[in-house]
Specification:
Three copies of one chain form a homotrimer. Chain A has helices at residues 2-7, 18-31, 138-153, 170-183, 218-231, 246-251, 278-297, and strands spanning 35-40, 43-48, 54-59, 64-67, 73-76, 86-89, 95-100, 106-109, 119-122, 127-129, 132-135, 157-162, 187-191, 194-195, 206-211, 235-239, 258-263, 265-266, 274-277. The first copy, chain A, is an alpha/beta fold and 298 residues long. Chain A has an eight-stranded mixed beta sheet with strand order 1-2-12-3-13-17-15-16, with helices on both faces. Chain A has a six-stranded antiparallel beta sheet with strand order 5-4-9-6-7-8, with no helix packed on it. In chain A, helix 5 (218-231) packs across helix 7. Chains in contact: A-B, A-C, B-C.
Chain lengths: 298, 298, 298
């Protein structure tokens, strides 16, 4: 999990993913000589093998805040902060506390004289306790970690590290297009984090989503579920009426790429204390590897 | 209308259109040797003639329900069911009744032990009474029927049978792109079903929409209306402030394809008893043929 | 400002931009022999220089009204009319007054027997008073004017005159695609009009937006802000939580084109009496020229 810890040190609220893209390009360039890397804006496409037929999408942006006028904090994506939560300037040292004001408006408290327009993120450090990790931004650092696992362990795979998922979906549109036009890829898996609910539980394995607000193509989903059964990896079937992922953007991209969501559940999403189980993350990586290899061989 | 009856026997809630795509590919392959067929996911493109310049878009998905946990029914698209309406498992035999519970939530009643994740559709059989057909899913089986009429009767035409219109528009984006890039098509007609209202009436002919929530390009619309006047086919001008169709997705596809909506009105949309007039459907097919031929010759 | 006055005489509510496209093609064809013009539907792309690397996007549509049944007025985009405001039929002579009825519904008053489906626009004539212009449709005639200034004053630049921004974004999707595929353009500036607020004031120069409902890519924004500082042109940094522009459509276009919004503030947006300062418009044109040249040389 060392790599996950490193990923959790990098700030990248939606729109400001440059540092994360830099890190990925350097990391893959240094440690994965068999992988071709292509940077598009701050999205990164990594391709391994002769002609991969499956792409893993992992978004590299996170929720956060833009400092507005009069110390107002404007949402980037959909953060769910508590009053008093500690914030840090993205890519900087300044700190402050979020204050929930009248009508639910958020303000930046503390002594900082930070300029309006700066981006702010949760300041909490990750902690591990037994099988559990508690940290901001496990959504989607854990998904990026799992995608890097797939890149390391699969001989034929593409990975799209996408920008803007939490806010607008910019990177998924761009990467879908590039993967379809440049690599004739028609099959995708979304490596992202989902919710612990009454029916999907932390500790019970990776979730495969049968639907969220979007409905993936059933025949592709059936193939995924058949492969999942054969995989021997611990997993849960998730059925939701809301929520979305890069899958939704792919679906509206004009590129005929099928997608299914594969991800570990977490508690307290979009807070400064997201909680996931390490066993679920390992199941997530194992499942992605199993599905990529299974789909590639079909 | 035999073909329409056949179409009404096939289940294809958004996301699960495989059976419908199979049927179309087989039907066209067997009975229309002059038509080239291309399947993209579960969307189907059919092309007839040397260089058609007009495409008819007909969505092949329908509204429906996903069975969730605890017998909850989750909407696919925007169904408008009544308490007690009979449902059938898509592509299966199991039946049950929809129950409207507290706060308007829908549950599946009856004895079935169906698995969460299965898709459900209205079970009612189509009926004809004089000039009227009463059936679920006339939206958009009637539009598919009319598009097949255009494919049979026009020597130069493309038809896009699109997935996901009721839920997300997936197929229209993909088909717009393919028709623009592969066939240089700039002109589209949307073959779909609209509403019986105070100003547009069942039995008064096909409706041509001057706008809905979207505004089609006026110069293209003017050309369509001029051709409609010349056609001799019975039609009504529709002006709406809401509603949408594959036209909206085409408009956001990045492909410069003009579109206008052409469709028969119906009563009780998205219920298990949609009502359309056969005379309106015949006007719809006649108008599509007239417009395709007229636009192609311009 | 003669050119702006001419632009204000042409009607082009979203969907009905044909006359504006005609005018632009003729104007550029006659007076700018060094510019290549390409018309796509009613959007227009103008390209100057050997290999421009920056595109200015200026939307050519405006808000307005469709006449519905029973003299109802249906919104095109988001007009903010007052009861009694004078309207004119787009491209015609008929006039009438907008009446705000029960539940806020709009009706067309007056003696006209105009046909349902006709488009209507504010009838007020532009006025100048010192440094201030008062007119409907400064949004976005002023942005089109500034883009034409950039086309006249920059030796290497592309301009996209886009349709549908107020209503659906059709033209920005199409032009982004064409500029990316045909001209390998990755950098855009949005030439549009913004709001006079507590923090951004008419008369204090052009606004550069650090964000609105969308977040532009930070590294591109940083480059723009550095160039703006060097430009010597009077400008204001704007930070908003809502609002949007063609930038949002570019972001979802699947084309990796960065964008930043550059525009003069106005009072009373989307009314028949929008107010902008001429000094701000000159700053807007100067800033666009400075940024286009600066980005092109980077």
């Amino acid at each position: 999990m060392d790599l996950l810890w490193k990923l959790l040190q990098i700030d990248s609220p939606s729109g400001d993913e440059g540092a994360m893209a830099d890190w990925l390009v350097a990391e893959i360039g240094t440690n994965m000589p068999e992988v071709r890397v292509e940077r598009i804006g701050d999205s990164v496409i990594a391709v391994r093998g002769k002609a991969p037929t499956v792409a893993v999408f992992a978004h590299i942006d996170t929720i956060g805040f833009t400092l507005g006028y009069d110390r107002q904090l404007i949402r980037i994506g959909g953060p769910a902060p508590k009053d008093g939560v500690k914030l840090r300037m993205a890519g900087g040292d300044a700190v402050g506390k979020l204050r929930v004001g009248k009508a639910g408006a958020w303000k930046l408290g503390g002594k900082t004289d930070a300029a309006p327009g700066t981006r702010w993120v949760y300041a909490a450090e990750p902690k591990q306790s037994g099988d559990e990790i508690v940290s901001p931004y496990l959504d989607n650092r854990a998904g990026v970690w799992a995608a890097l696992q797939a890149l390391t362990r699969c001989e034929n795979v593409a990975v799209a590290f996408t920008t803007g998922e939490e806010h607008s979906g910019q990177g998924a549109y761009v990467c879908a297009r590039r993967l379809y036009e440049g690599y004739a890829i028609y099959q995708a898996l979304i490596s992202d984090i989902t919710w612990d609910t009454k029916h999907v539980h932390c500790g019970d394995g990776v979730a495969i989503s049968l639907r969220d607000s979007m409905t993936p193509r059933q025949r592709y989903l059936d193939r995924i579920l058949a492969l999942a059964e054969l995989s021997g990896v611990s997993y849960q079937r998730e059925i939701e009426s809301s929520g979305g992922s890069d899958g939704g953007y792919i679906q509206r991209s004009g590129c005929p790429i099928d997608w299914v969501f594969v991800g570990a559940p977490q508690k307290h999403p979009h807070t400064s204390a997201e909680r996931v189980r390490i066993s679920d993350l390992n199941a997530m990586a194992d499942m992605l590897v199993s599905l990529v290899n299974g789909l590639h061989e079909l």
